[in-house]
UniProtKB/TrEMBL annotation:
It catalyses: Endohydrolysis of the N-glycosidic bond at one specific adenosine on the 28S rRNA. It comes from Agave rhodacantha. Keywords: Glycosidase, Hydrolase, Plant defense, Protein synthesis inhibitor, Toxin. Its EC number is 3.2.2.22. GO terms for molecular function: rRNA N-glycosylase activity; toxin activity. Coiled coil: none annotated. GO terms for biological process: defense response; negative regulation of translation. Gene3D superfamilies: Ricin (A subunit), domain 1, Ricin (A Subunit), domain 2. It is an enzyme of class 3 (hydrolase). The keyword Hydrolase applies. The keyword Hydrolase applies. This is rRNA N-glycosylase. InterPro entries: Ribosome-inact_prot_sf (IPR036041), Ribosome_inactivat_1/2 (IPR017989), Ribosome_inactivat_prot (IPR001574), Ribosome_inactivat_prot_sub1 (IPR016138), Ribosome_inactivat_prot_sub2 (IPR016139).
Length: 232
């Protein structure tokens, strides 16, 4: 992202989805990308170099098959989620001492996921934190910012669009509770629904999920909400 404004952020997410797509499902004009299958034993990774406040830089490593953040680089040292004795994905890395799920991250940060600022100022501060801080609570909060603005926003078009419109506002930009509950926690479910519909068409009993108190009655509606699917 050259400039973190609305257009630049949306362009970054569009490009990321194209790079990560293994295939597309759905009709022309209303299709959605699908990730490559996740190889659990030997996952593939991709790195994103982020620049924050004062030109501070960090490289964050993500898992190709599910977009999970696995770790990041501070100087020449890699840090990854987990603690001593856990599976180590990045050679010679140091463990952060906490896991990468939102429950563990919020616990380590001492803040709810919905209390974390996701605007440009929150992003720039988060990148500087990852580049310089050795405090676990600061690192955890910063990794929530990265997971939201890169991974979650890639998974959901509705999320990247909503975040982009307010990313430059001076007021804090917080995730709404329904976005966490109805979108992020259900990504695997929605992916499975759309892939099943793609395979079986109208023979498939579409389950009509509820998102932000709105019933999503068709696959066409659901595809418009998603940015990229888990290949389940």
């Amino acid at each position: 992202v050259r400039t973190l404004d609305a257009a630049g952020y949306r362009a970054f997410q569009d490009d990321l989805r194209k790079r990560l797509a293994d295939m597309y499902i759905g009709p022309a004009g209303n299709n959605v990308a699908v990730l490559h299958h996740d190889n659990e034993g030997a996952p593939q990774w991709f790195d994103v170099i982020l620049t924050g406040a004062g030109g501070a830089q960090t490289t964050v490593r993500f898992r190709v098959g599910n977009l999970y953040v696995v770790g990041y680089q501070m100087g020449t040292t890699w840090y990854e989620f987990g603690k001593k004795g856990d599976k180590q994905w990045i050679p010679n890395s140091q463990f952060l001492g906490f896991r990468g799920d939102y429950g563990a991250l919020a616990n380590a940060a001492g803040k709810k996921v919905t209390e974390i600022n996701l605007n440009v100022y929150g992003f720039e501060a988060a990148v500087k934190t990852l580049a310089t801080s050795t405090k676990g609570n600061e690192r955890a909060a910063a990794l929530i910012v990265v997971a939201q603005l890169v991974s979650e926003a890639c998974r959901f078009l509705i999320l990247s669009n909503a975040l982009s419109t307010r990313i430059n506002d001076p007021a804090p930009l917080n995730l709404k509770q329904w976005m966490l509950d109805d979108l992020e926690r259900e990504w695997g479910t929605y992916s499975e629904i759309l892939l099943c519909y793609n395979d079986f068409g109208d023979k498939y009993n579409f389950p009509k999920p509820t998102i932000n108190q709105n019933v999503i009655a068709t696959a066409d509606e659901l595809r418009k909400i998603l940015g990229i699917l888990l290949n389940v």
